[in-house]
Amino acid sequence: MTKQILLLLLIAGFTVDLAAQNVDSLKERQSELRDQIRSLETDLKQTTAKIPPELGWSFSYSGTLGFTFNRLNNWATASNPNSETSAIQVSMLGRANLREENYFWRNTARLNLGWQRQDLKRDDVPDESKYEPTVDVLQINSLYGYKIGPKLSLSAMAEFRTTIIENAFDPAYLDIGTGATWTPNDHWLVVLHPLNYNFIIASDELDFESSLGTKLLVEYSREIIDGFLLSSNFTGFMSYEDADDLSNFTWTTGLNFKAFRGIGVGIEYALRWNKQETRAADLDDDIQSYFLVGLSYTL
Known about the structure:
CATH architecture of the largest domain: Beta Barrel
Number of helices: 2
Strand content: over 45%
Number of strands: 12
Radius of gyration: 29 Å
CATH class of the largest domain: Mainly Beta
Order of helices and strands: HEEEEEEEEEEEHE
């Protein structure tokens, strides 16, 4: 009987040891397969990057919608204990690009709009609150380039920017110039036009002045990790007549995370420096900015 028990114990111990060895073997094989998958994914991305882009037209669209709502009811620590505040902000970007062997034509349209409303909920004050515009920018850019090398092109560009909610086209900015464009890869675009005229259309000509100068445009767009798209756009003008008062720049950066079928979360931040605008609006600080977080959609 004792021998039988010992035999059973030996068999059980051998079975447990064999099972453990099988689990360790499976885990080792799992690790090997994961390494192979990572290697194949890296090789796929590198091979895809080497494939030249297709010629012809390509179109893309992305947008971000942000909405906030805040309501206070007898909130004693607030300056307005009974109030409602809401804000809506929309950012849209569309591209239509033509790529051929010897030339390209890139077209971009950006629209940033925002509204804000506040109701103080006071009995002695009638509610006349309504949505007032905040951010209000329409920007259209058209760039044509003729290739003189794999990465360098002679180019001409027109860029138009204005407001559309309030004081539409007053002021409106139109840059027209020529120079060179450098495209080191599909992620970067650098435009330098030393011969550029900045036309400003405004009813008050005392606050705004057109001038000749240099136009600089830098764009960067890349999927930094799976599902996360980073895009940044810098457009600036340096006046030859008065670099301090007549120059301007706008820098917009956005990060979009795709969650489901193009829908995700978008973050956008913009800085602008334009003394002619801030002086006309009687603002003390020359730097303008806006920040947006909301749902995003990419097509």
